[in-house]
Write a structure and sequence with these properties.
The chain is mostly helical. The protein is built from two helices and two strands, in the order H-E-E-H. It has a two-stranded antiparallel ribbon. Strand 1 and strand 2 form a beta hairpin. The longest helix is centred in the middle third of the chain and has 107 residues. The chain is rod-shaped.
């Protein structure tokens, strides 16, 4: 390869390995001395990237913990509601049983009411009859 072609393709000569393909404007060999500022910046970049990734993972973990706590709270609430529903159901069964036992007594109350109404009507008739009878008696007494 000619020197112009190699440079155009990004091929450079490394003192340790010979021709290599360059990926940037500065070559970096692991054993070659390098720029301390670049090393410091790279270390800072990796530390900041690690902090960012740690923060992202921590945020996700916190979200999952929150969801877990919400699920546990919801489960507890539904268990409480289940107990309340069971107690209401038991109370409803008891009330229905009491109502069933009261049905004959309610029927007797209805009969008593009918009898009282008939008795009241009879009392009004008797009162009207006694008033007519009294009026006749007074009319007979005046003669």
């Amino acid at each position: 390869m000619s020197e112009e072609t190699d440079t155009e393709l990004g091929v450079t000569d490394s003192p340790l390995r010979g021709p290599t393909l360059s990926t940037s404007t500065s070559s970096f060999e692991a054993l070659d001395p390098h720029d301390p500022n670049l090393s410091r910046l790279a270390t800072t970049m990796f530390n900041k990237s690690a902090e960012y990734l740690y923060g992202e993972l921590t945020a996700s973990l916190d979200d999952y913990r929150l969801i877990e706590e919400m699920n546990q709270a919801t489960t507890a609430k539904y268990n409480d509601m289940k107990h309340i529903a069971v107690n209401v159901s038991k109370s409803l069964v008891e009330l229905n049983a009491k109502y069933e036992s009261l049905i004959p007594l309610l029927g007797q109350i209805d009969q008593l009411e009918d009898n009282v109404t008939k008795l009241e009507q009879a009392a009004y008739k008797l009162d009207a009859y006694t008033k007519r009878l009294e009026a006749k008696f007074k009319a007979l007494e005046k003669r």
